[in-house]
Amino acid sequence: MEYNTSREKLVLPEYGRNIQKMIEMAIEEPDREKRNRMVQAIIAIMGNMNPHLRDIADFKHKLWDHLAIISNFKLDIDAPYEKPEIEKLKEKPEIVPYNKQKIKYKHYGKTIEKLINEAIKMEDPERKEYLIQLLANHMKKSYLTWNKEAVSDEQIFSDLNEISEGKISLNIQDTRLAETKDILAKNKHRRTPIPRKK
Question: Which residues are CB-neighbours of 63 under 8 A, at least 6 positions away?
């Protein structure tokens, strides 16, 4: 019995062992014309394995690059694209810089802070009041999504006041936010998987 551990390592496992074997056969084919035909058939099979990628602009180019990589750049064929450079493939990717912006309350996010700043600048009192009401409700939803515990409207109003640096203050008597139980019920409903039909 032959185990995968004793077989040759797959260069790109997503294409499987059969594709790798086909490419190895193409490398050994002495007739260039026949080898080119074999490679065209292999590329077609590789494309059929990932039909969801066909709409990507450089999909064909990527397939030819993968073919070259699997063949360890040994295939002598008439390819429509240049082979990728081995040095570039071995290059380490550039370090992605982390966002170093400070967020007062991470569970609300940076967007809420930006929206609060926009609300402060608004001149139309009706629109401003409406936006602040929406923001307070959204903050309550965000709080409950990330903290999974009850939160009072007073806490939301206090956080809103602090984020806005005292420029927005809501009164508990004048403002009503969505009920905690309703928000939690909606969150629970979203997480409940839909049963499959038999």
Answer: 43, 46, 47
- Mean of per-residue pLDDT scores for the chain: 83
Is 95 within a domain?
no
> How confident is the model over 99-113, as pLDDT tens digits?
777 777 888 888 888
Q: Can you tell me the distance from the alpha carbon of 187 to that of 165, in angstroms, rounded to the nearest whole number?
A: 30
The reply to whether 83 and 33 lie within a common domain is yes
Same-domain pairing of 118 and 80: no
Residue 116 CB partners (closer than 8 Å, separation 6+):
135, 160, 163, 164, 168
CA-wise closest residue to 156 among 180, 140, 141, 142: 140
Look up residue 37 and give its two tokens. 């035909």
Give the helix/strand (H/E) hosting 129: helix 125-147
| DSSP code, position 5 | G
- Amino acid 40: pLDDT: 93
Q: Are residues 128 and 183 in the same domain?
A: yes
Range of the domain at 186: 110-191
Same domain, 118 and 75: no
Amino acid at 189: H
Closest CA to 35 of 85, 79, 69: 79
DSSP 8-state class, residue 13:
G
